[in-house]
Amino acid sequence: MNRFELPSSELYIGGRWETGTGAEIVSAFPGDGSINRIIPGASRADGERAIERALAAQADPAWRNLKPHERARFLYRIAEGIDTNAARIAYIQTRDTGKTLRETTALVASAAATFRYFAGALESLDDTLTAPRGDYLSLSVHEPLGLVSAITPWNSPIASDAQKVAPALAAGNAVLLKPASWSPLVSLELARIVEAAGLPQGLFSVLPGAGREIGNLLVEHPSIARVSFTGGTATGRMLARQAAEKLMPVSLELGGKSPTIVFADADIDLAIAGILFGVFSSSGQSCIAGSRLFVERSIYESFVGRLVAATKRLVVGDPFDEHTQVAPLVHVDHRNAVAAQVAAAVAGGAQILCGGAIPQGSAYDQGAYYLPTVLAGLSNDADICREEVFGPVLCVLPFDDEADVIAQSNANDYGLACGVWTRDFPKAWRTARAITTGTVWVNTYKQFSISTPFGGEKDSGTGREKGREGIRAYMAQKSVYVDLTGAPHPWARWPEGSA
Ligand code: NAD
Predict the structure, then answer these.
(1) Active-site residue 253, yes or no?
(2) Residue 329 near ligand 1, beta carbon < 6 Å
(3) Which residue CA neighbors atom 39 of ligand 1 most closely?
(4) Average pLDDT rounded to a whole number, residues 234-257
């Protein structure tokens, strides 16, 4: 189904459409493996050209001296461009990632909202006049960092791209965006929209390509002043080491193994619906997937029985079909890695309550499908309960009381998100405060607001995105003291006859 033309295979290098000179990358439709585009990726030479053009464009007074409301105009126009092309972008992202069209449509709307939000934030953020300690004005002002890199994963590219590019441009920087190799198309489409919005040439580049080649350059090049990274914990750790060498700030949005807690007094129907959405939407390929489920022992058997029955009813299929709930995974290689993790868990004693297999039938043969899977009989320190699967796999475990579930939830290297289901608000509050995590949802899951900061603890990363202060992460803070008296400093009053 080719409803819209896909972007060409050219890259957006410093404001010009050029053919990459790096290794080829392949974008394929995960529903049937058909090729979307074969793209010559960005080489280091392409990246260096983008950096040169970006530095020139960022230093140009035509950009650098814009007032906040003038810079905001570009972001409003980009938001408008995203909205106008929403159906096309959603289609491209579904072709690129296999996510359901319903989900990619929502992600596109959120990307437009992100540009609009940061335009508004930019117009309304103030610098500060600080309390003086003498006869001078003391001010704290913010300036662009210069050139920043944004490195994003394949699971929600348009949303991850917008969360980095919008605040970075709002802050007055030039931005180099590197999308993941499995999902280059939607970021290239974003480049078309940015170009059509009239952003001065050179300020924005989209450089898909190999992480070790172009990705590395976008971190280690001396002109890069900051990196905003979303991806796996191992890659993030490596980037942090490179950043430390340069003493460069880096924000890291990494993986997760998020606990969802169901207390015996929860509204069971609400909890089941929220848990299924929290772990199986995006086919579990979500950093915040609620993939460790803790159920209070007194309701464990009945709750898990109902949960498994509901899981079996989920519709697995074509991401373009509006009834589909669980679409294919991003790539057959990734699906096979998920299947291997489940097989290892079973070999280690896990019991498959449902799923645990590739769906059978001609509709699934060519795609990267995997059935929504529920595993039991595990301990919290089993590999599959500790490690991120990034697929439709839920581990269920019983707990005894509040203290027990808080301890089990926290006994994990990750700390990205948590769900709590209970009718007892004080208990929800106590639990929310006791879990080491970046986000807690109470009686809901996977809800977001661009005005609410997002980020992780422990191995889930460092730094926060979103929120008004999100722009500040892309700015340098400077203190300015202005004398108000014109009087010479006492040091200038030399003893008579000494000068
Ligand atoms: P990944 O770490 O393999 O890749 C992420 C990005 O980094 C890609 O663009 C990749 O090409 C690039 N990269 C790889 N090696 C690099 C290097 N040496 N230097 C610079 N860049 C390099 O992750 P992925 O498989 O694309 O995405 C899945 C991971 O992302 C999961 O662990 C998931 O939890 C995480 N994620 C986190 C969040 C969050 O906000 N916390 C959101 C989405 C995804």
Answers:
(1) yes
(2) no
(3) 253
(4) 97
